[in-house]
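Lab notebook: predicted structure, single chain.

Context: the supervisor wants predicted structures on file for every construct in the current expression panel, including those that have not yet been purified. This is the next one on the list. No modifications to the sequence; it matches the entry in the shared construct table.
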Amino acid sequence: MIFVRKILVVLQVVLTLFFMVFAAAVYSVQQNWKADYETLQKSKQDAETMFANDNSNLKQSNAELTQKFAAAKNEIGSLQAENDGLERERDQAIVDRDTARNELSRETVLAENANRESTLRIEEAYRSREQIDSLLTTRDHLVMSVQSLEDEVFNREVQTKKMQDKHNIVLADNAAYKRFLLANEFSIDSKDYAVEKPAPPLVQGMVLNTRRGGRAGANFVEISIGSDDGLQEGHELFVYRNQGQGKYLGKIRIVRTEPDRAVGTILLRSKNGTIERGDNVTTKL
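Prediction complete. Output recorded below exactly as produced.
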């Protein structure tokens, strides 16, 4: 019983302390409530002012953002239209690029063909130029040969004219001699006055030219020795060629003489070859 009383006493003391603390707290709260209210009211007013300012700023920002959004939307539309135009230009550029590639391929093929054709034409031009050069060279040789032959023909004509004039003089002299012989009752037959001709001297010469003349087709040989060397008409000479041990070509008889040359006809032919310019002649082998 005493223990219970003690507990009750302790409980009563605790409750007393609790109520005292509670009363102190209520008193403290009661004392600070008005100041807190005024502080809270001021804070509320400040918050409302701040809220109004923030709301105004927010509305202004919202209006600005709305304008920016509209401008951005318009810009997006412009960019979209520009993008569409760029895409169309890109597609057209791709088509143009493919067309250009095809055209380039075709032009490349044409250029290669033209290059090959040009190479062939250049080679053909070089060959033609070589042929032309060869023909020009041949022409020059032929022109020189023709000029040489023309000079030789001219010289021959001059010589022939001289020989014709001399022949005409001889014929005139011969006719005068015949008239003189007949006037003095002498024979005009040359056999009546023929004398034995002296043997030809030992001389050597060279064939200058050969030709076929007369209707009988007699071959004439012009040699480099004549009357100054002791040759006379009727003398016979041998023709040979200096090759190896020598080659006998035939025999000729002198039918006309000049101081430094003579002309003979071929009497005998050899099977060793044909008499040509540059062969040798001699009166004795």
